[in-house]
Amino acid sequence: MAVAQYTQLATKTLASNAATVTFSSIPYTYRDLMLVCYVKLVNGSDYATLRFNSDSSSSYPSVTAWGSSQAYISDTRIYLRVQGYTPVNSYLTSIVNIMDYSATDKQKSLIIRANTNDTISELGVEMQVAKWPSTSSVNSLTINAYSGGNLAAGSTFSLYGVK
Amino acid sequence: MAFKSLATSGIINFAKYQNALVGNAAYIPDPTSDFLITETVLSSQSSSISFDISSLSSTYKHLQIRVVARSDRAIASDYVRVRFNGDTGANYSWHNLYTDGTNSYSEYSAPETGMHVERIAAANSATNVFGVAIIDLLDVFSNNKYKTIKSIGGVYGAEDSTGRRVQLHSGNWRSLAVPTSVSVTVGGGSVFVTGSRFSLYGIKA
């Protein structure tokens, strides 16, 4: 018997600026996770970033291409959009698929699509594959601003379990 | 995209934003339209997996296949072929955009014996790394259209241009027949390793 592909696990909408958004106690009963972000940064030149299980020491490698260029990066976080920054009046849309998130025989691979309606010349449409090099099950996600500043009020984050 | 909330966008507080979606989710999956049909997680290696989709046409309009896979070929990354109805004739085409992080490329195929989807991990990828892909098969049960797929995916298995990829693919099967099966086969005569996973989803109209 077919079962629903997506189940909403939690949605967080910021009523005021906040440094961090966390999804914790993620159940292991799904195959993938999908994180849908609609995020604005308070600082004019900033990035929204993602970590797993509060791991701020591992390197999270990623490879990405956007409108006019490409890059590969290894940092202690994953960028929800790598190219440029998210200007203060612009919202970043990012859909993050975390594949086989609870598998203990696999490092965790992500497929990320992102865009923004910023006003700089390099328009932000981006595809990215990233990795958390751990075979631990993902039990929490943390989103924050790269600069240590705040995510802006009005930003929304929805986490779905994918069967 | 559905507007579910105007609490942020300022009908009553006159706050101004550049995007009408502010305060709403960028994408809201519909739990009444998308369903898991079946799934295969390999307990032993296999060169191919095939889904019987002959009974799905009356219920679903589109299909999606999610792949988390690794091959045993002695290279940094590998590719898979998607075929319909066991057709191994030169009735397919594909093209892609991809990057290794240093350069970006585009490719296209002449008529081929399957639609490529890339890239999955292979034997020279780091341990426990599997490549990933989300493959959408659009209007797949139509009998007046050639069948089109699109996919996004890639792998970060090694620190070189063949071991790290993110790719967009599109392909078609030039047949008006209604598919009864769809297969995913690893390229290069190799096999998918144990733990490789293939999930089939149906999407209603």
Question: What shape does the CA trace of chain A take?
Answer: globular
- Percent of residues in helices of chain A: under 10%
Kindly, what is the distance between the CA atoms of the first and last residues of chain B, rounded to a whole number of angstroms?
A: 16 Å
**Total beta-strand segments of chain A:** 13
List the strand order in the largest sheet of chain A.
Answer: 2-13-4-9-10-11-6-7
| Percent in helix of chain B | under 10%
How many helical stretches of chain B? 0
Strand proportion of chain B: 35-45%
Mean pLDDT of chain B: 89
Total strand count of chain B, please?
Answer: 12
Pair of chains with the largest interface and how many residues each contributes: A-B, 58 and 56 residues
Features of the shown structure:
heterodimer; A: 163 residues; mainly beta; 8-stranded antiparallel beta sheet; B: 205 residues; 4-stranded antiparallel beta sheet; 12 strands; globular
Structure, described:
The complex is a heterodimer of chains A (163) and B (205). By secondary structure, chain A is an all-beta fold. Chain A has strands at 3-4, 6-13, 20-23, 32-39, 48-52, 60-66, 69-75, 78-79, 92-99, 108-116, 124-132, 141-145, 156-162. In chain A, the strands form two sheets. Chain A has an eight-stranded antiparallel sheet with strand order 2-13-4-9-10-11-6-7, with no helix packed on it. A four-stranded antiparallel sheet of chain A has the order 3-12-5-8, with no helix packed on it. In chain A, strand 9 and strand 10 (108-116) form a beta hairpin. In chain A, 54% of the residues are buried. The mean pLDDT of chain A is 90. With 205 residues, chain B is an all-beta fold. Helix content of chain B is 0%, strand content 44%. Chain B has strands at residues 34-41, 48-52, 62-69, 77-84, 92-99, 104-108, 115-121, 131-138, 147-156, 164-173, 181-186, 197-203. Chain B has an eight-stranded antiparallel sheet, with no helix packed on it. A four-stranded antiparallel sheet of chain B has the order 2-11-4-7, with no helix packed on it. In chain B, a hairpin with a 4-residue loop joins strand 5 and strand 6 (104-108). Chain B is globular, with a radius of gyration of 19 Å. The model of chain B has no long low-confidence stretch (mean pLDDT 89). The chains are: A mainly beta (163), B mainly beta (205). At the A-B interface, strand 1, strand 2, strand 4, strand 6 and strand 7 of A face strand 1, strand 3, strand 5, strand 8 and strand 9 of B. Strand 1 (3-4) of chain A pairs antiparallel with strand 1 (34-41) of chain B.
